[in-house]
UniProtKB/TrEMBL annotation:
<dbReference type="InterPro" id="IPR011009">
    <property type="entry name" value="Kinase-like_dom_sf"/>
</dbReference>
<feature type="binding site">
    <location>
        <position position="36"/>
    </location>
    <ligand>
        <name>ATP</name>
    </ligand>
</feature>
<dbReference type="InterPro" id="IPR017441">
    <property type="entry name" value="Protein_kinase_ATP_BS"/>
</dbReference>
<dbReference type="InterPro" id="IPR000719">
    <property type="entry name" value="Prot_kinase_dom"/>
</dbReference>
<keyword id="KW-0479">Metal-binding</keyword>
<comment type="similarity">
    <text>Belongs to the protein kinase superfamily.</text>
</comment>
<keyword id="KW-0723">Serine/threonine-protein kinase</keyword>
<dbReference type="Pfam" id="PF00069">
    <property type="entry name" value="Pkinase"/>
</dbReference>
<keyword id="KW-0677">Repeat</keyword>
<keyword id="KW-0519">Myristate</keyword>
<feature type="domain" description="Protein kinase">
    <location>
        <begin position="7"/>
        <end position="264"/>
    </location>
</feature>
<keyword id="KW-0808">Transferase</keyword>
<dbReference type="InterPro" id="IPR050205">
    <property type="entry name" value="CDPK_Ser/Thr_kinases"/>
</dbReference>
<keyword id="KW-0449">Lipoprotein</keyword>
<dbReference type="GO" id="GO:0005524">
    <property type="term" value="F:ATP binding"/>
</dbReference>
<dbReference type="GO" id="GO:0046872">
    <property type="term" value="F:metal ion binding"/>
</dbReference>
<keyword id="KW-0472">Membrane</keyword>
Amino acid sequence: MDFDVHYAFGKLLGHGQFGYTYVATDRGNGDRVAVKRIEKAKMVLPIAVEDVKREVKILEALKGHENIVHFYNAFKMKNYVYIVMELCEGGELLDRILAKKDSRYTEKDAAIVVRQMLKVAAECHLHGLVHRDMKPENFLFKSNKDDSPLKATDFGLSDFIKPGKRFRDIVGSAYYVAPEVLKRKSGPESDVWSIGVITYILLCGRRPFWDKTEDGIFKEVLKNKPDFKKKPWPSISTSAKDFVLKLLVKEPRARLTAAQALLC
């Protein structure tokens, strides 16, 4: 199948480690899509090829979920690999947070966002998958509307895991990384921790674990508890605080699962 026969390129949306993401138009029906164009020349190591294959396999496995960016097709051409996905034009969750008054959400609005993230985590875990990089930059809104659905994107670090097994590598983003990831024995629970961090940020506009250096952040994550005394926490409900605390339990086995958190 020839990519150029089916799609016409539009503007550049962004770029990552191996390639660029563009808006494209389906020549058949006029629909606008997002296309990740990966340069084969940059995939010199076998591991890079495996990463791309795995991402496509993951997108196919999660196809059809309302809060996961929809996968349409993948094309392997002479110089590039193209991954065709749903176009989300509402921007990143991070930008929405920053645009809010005091960079924070009301409890009611935060609950709507958090529920959608937990549904993504629960769906991944049901398929034996761990996202491994849940952060506000990896959640996009479908449109600019206030009630736009949220869509998880970027499964580049995601991987399948067998029950009882643990990942030994440290991946993810410093502010959102779970303690067990830093201890090199992580599993699906680490996604729930990351959602806990995002929930804390949504409610108060600050990060629960912060330092000037990455090492400093890691020490905070391993040793310290998030602050619930400073403003606006005194005005936030006890149930919201308890919920955040249940997601930010340092011991992964004592943490709520994504499915359990959805019942709260």
